[in-house]
Amino acid sequence: MYSLHTNTAAIGAQRALRTNDVDLARAQSQTSGGLRISTSSDNAAYWSIATTIKSDNRALTAVQEGLGFGSAVIDTASVGFAQAIEVMDVIKQKLVAAREPGVDRDKVNAELSELRAQVRSIAEASSFAGENWLHMTQAGQDEPQEVIASLTRSLNMGLSVNTIDYDMTSAPDTEQVFYIVDDVTGESGIVTNSAFADSLGLATDWVLFNGVNSAGHAEIEISMRRTTPTLTI
After folding, report:
1. Is residue 180 packed enough to be buried (19+ CB in 10 Å), middle (13-18) or exposed (0-12)?
2. How far is 105 from 116, CA to CA, in rounded Å?
3. Using CA atoms, how far apart are residues 203 and 168, in angstroms rounded to an integer?
4. Residue 209 pLDDT > 70
């Protein structure tokens, strides 16, 4: 005859040890991962929220980097414009001074050539990571430029990236231009666009200097005649 004796105390102790082992494993997982909820089995709702937040945080980091990139591109263009304006002021001074009697116009023209080269150099150098808003070198470059501005999540959990758009679209044969130098057609560059001369009613399409592919216009220069010198600004 067999008999079965149940040790209630031992069973209780074993149950407590098993529970402690599970709790210790969970605590170890939370400590190593730094997360109280690391899998969906811990808490499905909280895990879903946490996963979304972590994803959005990574996207925000990318937006922050995009903001820095956009700021650098705009700052580069702004500095270039400021430098070009300073050179243009000097060019204007030279043109006005050329009207004075006794001025060596050969030297003035030589100085104008050097100043033109400075303007072109400024436009070409105003580039950041391949983005140049002052020097047009290929067709289609005058399309609107986008800069990342922010990241928003709507009530329906939709995520969207917002941008600031800068209109760089030029209108042919008008003064609506945004680049300094246009080496494609010349029409989109401030100093290569003959529309400014047309708006003054001049018979000749004067430009400060020609673009690479728009050599059909007359560059501004000082007449060498000593009597009644011709100066077109």
Report:
1. buried
2. 16
3. 29
4. yes
